[in-house]
Amino acid sequence: MNPNKALWEKGDFTRIAESMRESGEALVESLGITPGLQVLDLGCGDGTTALPAASRGADVLGVDIASNLVEAGNKRAEALGLTNCKFQEGDASDLQALADDSFDLVVSIFGAMFAPKPFDTAKEMVRVTRPGGRIVMGNWIPNDPTLVAQILKISSSYSPPPPEGFISPMTWGVEEYVIERFTSAGAREEKISFLRDSYTFRFPAPPSELVASFRAYYGPTMNAFEAAEANGRAADLESELEALFNEQNESPSSDATSIPATFLRVSVAV
Ligand SMILES: C[S@@+](CC[C@H](N)C(=O)[O-])C[C@H]1O[C@@H](n2cnc3c(N)ncnc32)[C@H](O)[C@@H]1O
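# S-adenosylmethionine complex -> structure
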């Protein structure tokens, strides 16, 4: 089994995605979606950005490596009556089912960054975007002080070292690497732009319960806890994560969590 696929099918990312819906809506609102726009959402999960794009009239294809998330996305589209939004399985680094120049907009929010072959992934994103179209990626930033980079940093100190040759998904949060990958895929450097943006995780329970959700449903955190358990360190990992989530929580209510996290927003005009 492909380990990248196994990682994302292991948990149930829909349970985490529920805390990201508002920011997904806001991000899509900023994209200037118009009716009939042909949109590919890569690493779409259960449709946090695909569904708002479709509800603004775009024709949306969501592609994700995890079959459980593809199924969840199709069910959500059906429940919303969005016949212009379809989800199908695929690998961002090898989009063989998709023809060249098919999309006006390729969007990938914390999605394609997790595909293991970044140069192939950039090439595929450029290939399926029509000339005059654009690519928008949201990528977490390594060593950033906000939530997601810190979860990964803490988790990695409880996990075995990655296999040799592994390229961290977080490298997509470094401008030089992004430029290198997209220019080698044929994009022009002056057409690549960056800005810092923010996503807020909102959860209707205290931070410790959001940590529990990550532990139960988020593949990378599940793996970190499995490794920590094997070394008798699961309680330490839990308390480090709880301290992080509590420290970053901005909700004024003790029954709710609201944690902003900074990401690198990449735009490529093709
Ligand atoms: C952090 S989740 C983000 C999901 C969604 N974009 C969102 O904003 O909710 C990462 C997603 O990337 C998907 N993914 C990971 N590797 C992939 C690959 N090689 N090709 C396509 N999707 C991939 C995972 O299955 C998962 O749905």
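# post-check
Residues 4, 8, 13, 17, 20, 24, 43-45, 48-49, 64-66, 69, 91-93, 109-111, 114-115 surround S-adenosylmethionine (CB under 6 Å).
Strands lie at 38-42, 59-64, 85-89, 103-109, 129-140, 192-203, 257-269.
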